[in-house]
Every structure is written in C-alpha cells, then in structure tokens.
Amino acid sequence: MILAACGNSLKTKEKVQAAILDRLQTHSGLDLKSMDIATTNVSFEKNLAFATVSFHPKGDPLLNGGMSMKYTLEARDGKWVVTKVGNSGGANTLPPGHPSLNQGASPGNPHTPAPTQ
C-alpha cells in the first residue's frame, strides 16, 4: 500500500512541470525568464507521464506567436525524468523568412548534406 501511495503522489501536473522546467534550464539554452511557459495537458500511464507544454514570448499579445512541445517523462527514484521531447507544432516553429531546414539535404535523408560536385 505504501508504494502505491508514493506513486500516486508523484502523479501531479505540478511535479511534471517542475521536471520539464528543470530539463529546460539545464539542457535547452533558452532564456526562460523571457518566456511564458505553461503545461497545458498532462496524462499518466503506469510509470509514464505525457505532457504538452506551450511557449510564448513574455508580453506577446498574439496567441499564435508561440509553439508547443510534447514531453514524455518516466518516474525514476521518486521523481520525473524527461525521456523524450517532440515538437507538436506551433504557428511559427521557425521564424518568418527562415530558410527550410531541408535546404541542402540529400533527398534520401534530410539530415545528411547533399553531395557537392
């Protein structure tokens, strides 16, 4: 019974958001003070949590000026650990006028540069 109670106390939106913010502070290089960050959705399945987080520049009145990311977290040693990060879209995932990320990539693999001639 005690183990089940401990596991349930971990399953809160606040604890998931704290783990994501910790990950952002240590791995992203983003200036978090200049952004509004909100966990908009959290679901739990066994020892996993799935969260959607929205990012907007502070003071930006445009609701579509930000983006959202999906996170998968795993419960390890009594805390949440981010195990996967994926883009779930946004109005402007790249700044306006930014060149395509596939520019100069080989057709078979967009991550491999095209051969030069």
Task: Report on this structure.
- This protein has 117 residues and is an alpha+beta fold.
- The protein has a single domain, classed as Nuclear Transport Factor 2, Chain: A.
- The protein has two helices and four strands.
- The chain has helices spanning 2-10, 13-27, and strands at 35-45, 48-57, 67-76, 79-90.
- The chain has a four-stranded antiparallel sheet with strand order 1-2-3-4.
- A hairpin with a 2-residue loop joins strand 1 (35-45) and strand 2 (48-57).
- The longest helix has 15 residues, at 13-27.
- The protein is elongated and about 35 Å long.
- Residues 1-6, 91-98 and 101-112 have low confidence and may be disordered.
Q: How would you describe the shape?
A: elongated
Q: State the strand order across the main sheet.
A: 1-2-3-4
CATH level 3 topology: Nuclear Transport Factor 2, Chain: A
* Helix coverage percent: 10-25%
Give the uncertain stretches in residue-range form. Answer: 1-6, 91-98, 101-112
List keywords for this structure.
Nuclear Transport Factor 2, Chain: A, 117 residues, four-stranded antiparallel beta sheet, single chain, 37% strand, alpha+beta
Explain the layout of strands and helices.
Blueprint: H1 2-10, H2 13-27, E1 35-45, E2 48-57, E3 67-76, E4 79-90
Antiparallel strand pairs: 1-2, 2-3, 3-4
Give a quick summary of the entry.
It is built from 2 helices and 4 strands, in the order ααββββ. The protein has helices at residues 2-10, 13-27; strands spanning 35-45, 48-57, 67-76, 79-90.
